[in-house]
Every structure is written in structure tokens, then in C-alpha cells.
Design goal:
alpha/beta; 8 helices; about 50% helix; globular
């Protein structure tokens, strides 16, 4: 499907690995010029090299998006490199799992600083640009807010807040011509999922293969998802093909989420 994205400009956060890297590469394949933002310069250079290999253009911003100054600098780098912004993909952020009674104030502060406040700050900073280009915001959130989990109190709370944030800002988007939507990935084959396998194996004294089977059974799905599947949906949502999709929270989890 021709998405009509050629020549558009995107800023993708958390673009050094995993979902962010896959999204950046998929957008580049569609002809989008991409600013890659994350903290790991080496990994960003690798993604930029892959984009170059498919004849794409990219820029890099290295910084900690927990900081307001870094958020503003990432946007400024995008504008300096390409002149405008059409697509904002908020993806950066990880939260600590663990026993609620053992999670510290610092764990909670860190969980909200990058993912929640990073998304909020960057959306606010980018809004004038997106309003001018009638662009779009795509928030990569996660299904972890759909059901309570005693080991995911930080992540679930952050995700729930971002789902509300997406719905609320989409109302402003109707007024200003900016589409705002969210994708909630389930268990996707990334390095982070690999760490989950290792954590389960250690906690239960089982092999890694047994941990994989155990988690798959708990999810109730036939397989885990692929980063490319999240990336393809992101590109579609960024395109005019999705012009009537506004304020949507789209789960892509193989049917793991059973509630309405």
C-alpha cells in the first residue's frame, strides 16, 4: 500500500533499539526523513547507517529525554536538519518492575520522568510545528494498563496516564488539525522481552526455553509479536490513509487483552 509519506519529517524517540529502531526504519522505507533520538550514540549510528543503506535521510540527537532541555533540543535538532516536523513518535521509556513494597521513590520518579513526562513535554513542545503541518502524534504505550499486575505498578500507572493523555490531547487535535493516537503493544520480540525470559527463568529455577513457554502460556497467544508489526501500524497511522482515526488506543497483542 502506498502511504504517501515520502518527504515527510519524523522525530522518533527511543530510536536506538527495539520498537523505536524498527519504527524509524519503516518510516524511512516509506520515504520519511527521520530524526533519531536516544541516549546511546553508538546504537543510533547503527540505525542511521541502516537508514542510509535504504537511501533514507536521518539526523541524530543524543540526550536524556528525562530533562526538559533535552526535549527542546531534540525538537530543535529535527527542525534544524529538516525544516519542519510532520510526525512525532513518542516511544522512549522503560519502567522498573518489582514488588510494590520494595519499589523506591526514585524508581517511581524515574518511571514517570522519561515515559510519561517525556511524552507530555515533547508533545507540547512540538504542537506548534504539528499544527502548522497538520501532522500527527503516535504514542507507543503498552497493554500493561489494561489489567492490574502487582509487579507492574509503575509501568501500568504510567501507561494508564498516557492513555488518558492521548484521549485528552486528541480533543485539542480535532481543533488544531493534529491527529493523536496510541499503539499498545503486547509482548513483542525485543531485547526487553529477552530480559523478561531471563527474569522468569531465574525466579522459577527453569531453563530459558521453559521460561519462554511459560510466558507464552500466560499470555494465551500463539506467538509473540514482532517489532515490524508495530512499525507497520505506526507508519499507517502517520499517513493520510488513517485520516479518520483520532484519539484511538489500538492494542496489538495477539489477543492477549480480553477486556473491553
Amino acid at each position: 500500500m502506498e502511504l504517501g509519506l515520502k518527504g515527510k519529517i519524523a522525530l522518533v524517540t527511543g530510536a536506538s533499539r527495539g520498537l523505536g529502531a524498527a519504527i524509524a526504519l519503516e518510516l524511512a522505507r516509506e520515504g520519511v526523513h527521520v530524526c533519531l533520538a536516544a541516549r546511546d550514540r553508538g546504537k543510533l549510528d547503527e540505525v542511521a547507517a541502516e537508514i542510509s543503506a535504504i537511501q533514507g535521510r536521518s539526523a541524530i540527537y543524543v540526550g536524556d529525554l528525562r530533562q526538559l532541555a533535552a526535549v527542546e533540543a531534540a525538537l530543535a535538532q529535527t527542525i534544524a536538519a529538516f525544516g519542519r516536523l510532520d510526525i512525532l513518535v513518542n516511544n522512549a521509556g522503560a519502567t522498573k518492575r518489582g514488588d510494590f513494597l520494595e519499589l523506591t521513590e526514585e524508581d517511581w520518579d524515574d518511571g514517570f520522568a522519561l515515559k510519561f513526562r517525556g511524552y507530555v513535554r515533547l508533545t507540547r513542545a512540538a504542537w506548534p510545528q504539528l499544527k502548522a503541518t497538520r501532522g500527527s502524534v503516535i504514542n507507543i504505550i503498552g497493554i500493561g494498563a489494561r489489567a492490574g499486575n502487582e509487579e507492574f505498578t509503575i509501568g501500568g500507572s504510567v501507561n494508564a496516564g498516557l492513555m488518558y493523555f492521548t484521549k485528552a490531547v486528541a480533543q485539542l487535535g480535532k481543533r488544531d488539525g493534529v491527529r493523536v493516537n496510541a499503539i499498545n503493544p503486547g509482548h513483542i520480540e525485543t531485547d526487553r522481552l529477552g530480559r523478561s525470559f531471563d527474569r522468569i527463568a531465574a525466579a522459577h529455577g527453569i531453563s530459558r526455553d521453559a521460561a519462554v513457554a511459560r510466558l507464552l502460556a500466560e499470555c494465551g497467544t500463539t506467538r509473540f509479536g514482532r517489532s515490524e508489526e508495530i512499525a507497520t501500524l505506526t507508519a499507517f497511522l502517520a499517513s493520510a490513509k488513517a485520516d479518520f482515526i483520532q484519539g484511538s488506543l489500538i492494542d496489538i497483542d495477539g489477543g492477549e487483552t480480553r477486556g473491553l
